[in-house]
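User: Structure please.
Assistant: Input sequence and predicted structure:
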Amino acid sequence: MGVIIGIVLLLLAIGVIALNMNPLVPISLWFTSVTLPVWTVIAGALVLGLLIAWLLALSKGTKNREKKKEQEDKLRVADLSKKEAVDQAKQDSEAQLIQKNAEIEGLKKQVSSLEEEMNKHLATTDIQSEQKTSTTKLAEADVDQQELKSENVTDSIRIEPDTKQTRTSKNKR
């Protein structure tokens, strides 16, 4: 909008100058010479200046657009490499997670088999302990019976000598 206003003001200024100045001016260019009114020379210089400024701005704008495009391309490549790095890291961590889960499952199986083995061992130990206990009880019962027998034998041995003495003393009489 500001450019349009500037152009309109410039054209008005050229029009005012052209109407106020009507003398002719000779212009010599390399091999020709031309006589033109002052306002035409001023307008021509203005148009030529605008054309040169526009060409310079166009070349600078082109360079800026090229730089902008290069930077956008670099940014796009950086984004792609960042995405690839994130995807690779995600895949690596998922692979590690799978590996760790497999290790955990293996350890769970080991624990389970060790628990089963321990339970079997405890069961056999309990059975052996019960057998030892029953064997010990049987042995104690046998010892008790043998003690009773030996007491009975001892008692009978004590009694017999008395009876023998009594018999012998009866015989002597």
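The longest helix spans residues 38-172.
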